[in-house]
Input
Amino acid sequence: MMKPADHKKKLKVPLTVEQKIKRRSFISFGAFFALGGAATVGWKWLLDAPEEIPGVTAGARAPLRRALNKTELFFRNLFSNSHLVKTYPKELAAATPRVNSLIGIEDDEDFDINAWKLVVKRVNGQNLNIGLEEIKALPKTEIVYDFKCVEGWDEIQHWGGVKLSDFLTHFKLDAQAQLPYMGLETPNGAYYVGLERESALHPQTLLAYEMNGKSLSVAHGAPLRLIVPVKYGIKNLKRIGTMSFSNNRPRDYWAEQGYDYYSGL
Ligand SMILES: Nc1nc2c(c(=O)[nH]1)N[C@H]1C(S)=C(S)[C@@H](COP(=O)(O)O)O[C@H]1N2
Ligand SMILES: [Mo]
Output
């Protein structure tokens, strides 16, 4: 009978270098084929999976969209209105802020800024038409924060306007704003975004009419644009024409092109 000590010794016989290499190669190849096989099966499953039901988002395979929606839910649950985006001193704001795309602005030759009114579409069908002076008469809020575009640039910018939540309260739109979504569109309807209630009501979300302490330029969205610091630039609609409220996701320009509908930061 082997004594325990002998037994241990036997197991401890060191492998030769060649044996070690062989063993590692075997493990690597095994893993390679197993993972490769799994990836192929997974890929095939995805390719055969039905496309999502056509709607406000671009065509993607249903399982991918489900994953995206789960991700969105995860972040929505984390979202809190007491959670504020970082702000900066005014001196750090860009003196000549960058202008990005101009959809719904440069393609609208009929637009008359002096005749502009914000059209709020209420659920009962009765529209409100609100002039800029009425909006400017409300308490002004300013914010300096890092504006981020999905295209990969960011810039510290200084905005002034009325808190969207103050605006809604003043015009007795609180009840409407309890609906899960808000839709905003340019006057010609060429650019449009959808926003969930939580982001619309976030305390840093503004209807902005000033930049760097001066009236907004046309390129930056005059007379009135959305500034929603908890979202990427794509959601910050310039030149707001209409505002509406709904139970379902409103149409969204970039979501239709396949970008994330939520686009939160
Ligand atoms: N009407 C309108 N709003 C818009 C856009 C647009 O093309 N048209 N582009 C969006 C994008 S992608 C970004 S990053 C910001 C840029 O705002 P800025 O041009 O003031 O920098 O506006 C957003 N709002
Ligand atoms: Mo952007």
In short: The pocket of molybdenum atom (ligand 2) is lined by residues 100, 149-151, 233-234 (CB under 6 Å).
